UniProtKB/TrEMBL annotation:
Protein name: histidine kinase
InterPro entries: HATPase_C_sf, HATPase_dom, His_kinase_dom, HisK_dim/P_dom, HisK_dim/P_sf, PAC, PAS, PAS-assoc_C
Residue span(s) of domain PAC: 91-143
Any one Gene Ontology molecular-function term assigned to this protein's record: ATP binding
Keywords, sorted A to Z: ATP-binding, Kinase, Nucleotide-binding, Phosphoprotein, Transferase, Two-component regulatory system
Transmembrane parts of this sequence: none
Ranges for domain Histidine kinase: 167-387
Protein species of origin: Anaeromyxobacter diazotrophicus
EC number(s) stated in the UniProt entry for this protein: 2.7.13.3
Boundaries of every PAS domain copy: 18-89
Reactions catalysed according to its record: ATP + protein L-histidine = ADP + protein N-phospho-L-histidine
Length: 387
């Protein structure tokens, strides 16, 4: 500007043309351009400002910028920025503009102070871009990234627990064979009515229960020989609807929505039945005491690399089991698939249901995901790669 003052004055026609062009640029540029005097009163409010805020320049001219478009909570911080600006620095910050119709946009600003030769602030030029969508996308990406990492950690942790549990269960099973054998022999030898007969029977019963738990644990640790064959999940679900309906009783309904064109997966049918059974029983327990519907759905899913956190790109059969029960806290969610994790009262839960589900799904090369919040039901999704 100062330089312009010392150079040759422009002819009037050229001046007109230049300022006309500047006005057009200001009106059409996508960036918000806002100029304020030293006190913060609006002097320039370009087309982008009008478009974002819904105010016309003549409505806001001369008003304090913070009285027009800011949320009350942002007024003091922005005044603070303004005071620091006046001290002569360039600065950047973000704030929300509330438009005339109440819509909110997040704007990233860069401010520059224009001062007199003697250093007094003349005006402040703020240039802003609307970063609402950009920041939303960034947040979604970060959240995706976080969930992806969680899934990986979870999988690694379960892998380790599975190996450990499998080893222990194996040794334990050998000991149980001895215990059960001896208890059986005792029951056989002790005549009916013998004072120790009852104790011997209790040993046999407890041993039997322990063996059942161990079998489940071995299942989880993927030690049971499985026989993967091509399966259409719909058939597995249909086979089970009778059993499931009986499990659910009168209050709870089972709804199925099965994709007619569902592709085949390769999996062990017994394991698949266990998966469905465990998920439905858990759904029932979560809805205990209330009426409602548990839905089982199947569909084909074609996933890109990052469509679903933790699930690689590919073609899958997706099995979902959804309930409208009590849901679960983030804390519960983080332990869900661990063997022996249960929130149910003693005697009601073994904590092996979902561990078994996890084992079976991994065995079939699949992935299991859960979506749930406290009081908002739960949805378990199982992705099995199509054959
Ligand atoms: N559909 C569900 N809704 C709410 N919580 C669930 C659901 N499924 C599982 N859970 C939680 O996960 C825990 C572990 O489930 P699971 O491994 O099947 O063991 P168990 O059913 O024996 O407790 C449950 O105790 C419960 O807290
Ligand atoms: Mg269970």
């Amino acid at each position: 500007m100062r330089q312009a003052a010392t150079s040759r004055p422009l002819p009037a026609a050229e001046l007109d043309e230049r300022s006309g062009m500047l006005a057009t640029v200001l009106a059409t540029v996508d960036a918000l351009v806002l100029a304020m005097d030293a006190e913060g009163r609006i002097q320039v409010f370009n087309g982008a400002c009008e478009r974002v805020s819904g105010y016309r320049f003549d409505e806001v001219r001369g008003r304090y910028a913070w009285d027009v478009v800011l949320r009350p909570a942002d007024v003091e911080p922005v005044k603070g920025v303004f005071r620091r600006l006046s001290a002569g620095q360039r600065s950047t910050y973000e704030n929300v503009w509330v438009a005339k119709d109440g819509t909110e946009r997040l704007i990233a600003w860069s401010n520059a102070v224009q001062s007199d030769p003697d250093g007094r602030v003349r005006f402040v030029v703020a240039t802003g871009i609307d970063v609402t969508e950009l920041r939303q996308t960034e947040r979604a990406l970060a959240e995706n990234e976080r969930r992806y990492r969680d899934q990986l950690t979870q999988a690694a942790k379960l892998e380790a627990i599975g190996r450990l549990a499998g080893g222990v269960a194996h040794d334990f099973n050998n000991l149980l064979t001895v215990i059960l054998g001896c208890a059986g022999a005792l029951c056989h030898e002790l005549p009916a009515g013998h004072p120790l007969r009852e104790e011997a029977e209790e040993i046999a019963a407890a041993g039997g229960e322990a063996a059942r738990l161990t079998r489940q644990l071995l299942e989880f640790a993927r030690q049971r020989p499985v026989q993967p064959v091509p399966v259409v999940l719909n058939h597995t679900v249909e086979e089970m609807t009778g059993v499931l309906a009986r499990l659910l009783g009168d209050e709870l309904q089972l709804a199925t929505a099965l994709a007619p064109d569902l592709g085949r997966v390769v999996a062990d049918p017994t394991s698949l039945r266990q998966v469905i059974l465990n998920l439905v029983v858990n759904a029932r327990d979560a809805m205990a005491g209330g009426a409602g519907t548990i839905s089982i759905q199947t569909e084909n899913a074609e996933l890109g690399a990052r469509d679903v956190p933790g699930v690689p790109a590919g073609r899958y059969a997706l099995l979902s089991v959804r309930d409208t029960g009590c849901g679960m806290s983030a804390e519960t969610r983080s332990h869900l698939f661990e063997p022996f994790f249960t929130t149910k009262p003693e005697g009601c839960g073994t904590g092996l249901g979902l561990a078994t589900v996890f084992g079976a799904v991994k065995q079939a090369g699949g992935h299991v995901l859960v979506e749930s919040a406290e009081g908002e039901g739960a949805c378990f999704r199982i992705y099995l790669p199509l054959a």
